[in-house]
């Protein structure tokens, strides 16, 4: 038996090897090895090494994945997925002069089926930069318009400050940090939270770099929505202008102002009265201009809709008085209390009357409307001094007039029959004369 086993031993060993190689050839022909690849997300490890040294980084690549190439049997190819690999760079391995970091591949699953996995690219360049931390006061940017009849108030935020961290070059481009509040159509107070955003120097919102971090991602706010009302401005000047001048009124840069407040606070307010102490015109000889801060005179809880327009320019108008001389016919003087048995004779046909007033008002005045009258009831026969009274309005002031003498005589018996006709004739003359033209000459101011 042993002899049979040992016969042709070399041939038998060779047969075994040949059988193995035949089997190997069959396997390779039916299930050959092939190349394949997968896109694998790129992980970053040991970021803390940079941040602990006050640094931040940026990957100088447009992709956040790498291509992992490997060899695998044809029949096993379908069972391989991207999740079988882990691709990462270790920032501890960064080469400072160039910023190059090698990409490392770790096979997590099906390791026995895979051969020679390789990453492409094999090196990722990393740009490092100093890390800046900066505190910003939170700014609330309000957009939109409140409902008709309402205005937006001043928003309040919580917290008031926020810390921003990121690359120095990026943080340096941020002019302000805050939130955006939309009040479009609002007719009541708003209270909510809004995400933190960054603004440039023109208060335009700028995209947030992913390397920027905030101490908090949102900010709480309250936004008052206030009722709007227009209030009339009342001006009450005090004092007395200089002699020879007259106060003619007040002009202001605007007659009313828009204010905001609670509906209940505005319900009983229709005007704003400026204290007379602010508008003193003592001794004024011309227009006096005063600039007032209207916000000082608003009731508690009421505010100007536009703080930039709180100043109102007020002009106290003062004009110089002028004097004009009017020629008054004595026939235009109405006699009061005349006796039917007396005759009255003036010593002149006309008198000069000097009236003072504003230039424009004087041009509208005539002797016919002076309302001149004389009380003759107590006059006795003989020479009497006549006193003329004038019916002048508040716009005019009597300066002087020529005094007149009146001669009173008793009528004879023969004159009784003609008295009535004479008086009627005089009254007719006075009536006609009062409507007739009157000459006037301009006198110097202050006469």
Automatic annotation (TrEMBL):
Membrane-crossing residue ranges in chain numbering: 9-29
Acidic residues bias: start-end ranges: 424-433
Record-linked InterPro entries: c-di-AMP_regulator, YbbR
Residue ranges of coiled coil: none
Swiss-Prot/TrEMBL keywords: Membrane, Transmembrane, Transmembrane helix
Annotated region described as Disordered, given as residue ranges: 409-447
Listed PANTHER family: CDAA REGULATORY PROTEIN CDAR
Listed name of the protein: YbbR-like protein
């Amino acid at each position: 038996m042993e002899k049979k086993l040992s016969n042709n031993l070399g041939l038998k060993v060779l047969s075994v090897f040949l059988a193995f190689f035949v089997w190997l050839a069959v396997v390779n022909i039916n299930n050959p090895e092939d190349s394949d690849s997968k896109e694998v997300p790129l992980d970053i490890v040991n970021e803390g090494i940079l941040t602990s040294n006050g640094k931040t980084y940026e990957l100088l690549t447009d992709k956040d994945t790498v291509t992992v190439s490997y060899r695998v049997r044809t029949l096993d190819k379908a069972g391989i997925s991207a999740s079988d690999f882990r691709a990462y760079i270790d920032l501890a391995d960064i080469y400072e002069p160039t910023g190059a970091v090698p990409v490392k591949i770790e096979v997590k699953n099906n390791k026995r089926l895979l051969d020679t996995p390789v990453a492409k690219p094999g090196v990722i360049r990393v740009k490092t930069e100093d890390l800046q931390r900066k505190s910003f006061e939170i700014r609330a940017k309000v957009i939109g318009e409140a409902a008709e009849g309402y205005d937006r108030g001043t928003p309040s935020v919580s917290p008031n400050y926020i810390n921003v961290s990121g690359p120095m070059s990026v943080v340096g481009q941020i002019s302000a940090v805050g939130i955006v509040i939309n009040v479009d159509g609002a007719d009541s107070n708003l209270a909510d939270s809004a995400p933190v955003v960054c603004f440039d120097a023109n208060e335009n919102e700028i995209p947030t770099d992913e390397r920027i971090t905030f101490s908090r991602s949102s900010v709480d706010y309250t936004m008052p929505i206030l009722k709007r009302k227009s209030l009339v401005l009342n001006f009450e000047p005090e004092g007395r202008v200089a002699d020879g001048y007259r106060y003619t009124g007040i002009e202001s840069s605007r007659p009313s102002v828009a204010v905001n407040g609670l509906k209940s606070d505005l319900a009983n307010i229709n005007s704003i009265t400026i204290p007379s102490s602010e508008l003193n015109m003592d001794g004024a000889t011309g227009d006096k201009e005063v600039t007032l801060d209207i916000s000082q005179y608003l009731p508690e809880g009421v505010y100007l809709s536009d703080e930039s327009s709180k100043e109102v320019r007020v002009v106290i108008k003062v004009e110089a008085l002028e004097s004009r001389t009017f020629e008054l016919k004595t026939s235009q003087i109405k006699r009061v209390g005349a006796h039917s048995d007396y005759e009255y004779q003036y010593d002149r046909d006309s008198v000069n009357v000097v009236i003072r007033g504003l230039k424009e008002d004087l041009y509208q005045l005539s002797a016919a409307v002076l309302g001149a009258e004389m009380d003759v009831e107590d006059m006795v026969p003989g020479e009497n001094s006549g006193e003329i009274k004038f019916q002048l309005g508040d716009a005019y002031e009597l300066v002087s007039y020529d005094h007149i003498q009146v001669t009173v005589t008793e009528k004879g018996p023969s004159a009784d029959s003609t008295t009535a006709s004479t008086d009627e004739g005089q009254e007719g003359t006075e009536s006609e004369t009062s409507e007739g033209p009157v000459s006037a000459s301009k006198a110097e101011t202050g006469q």
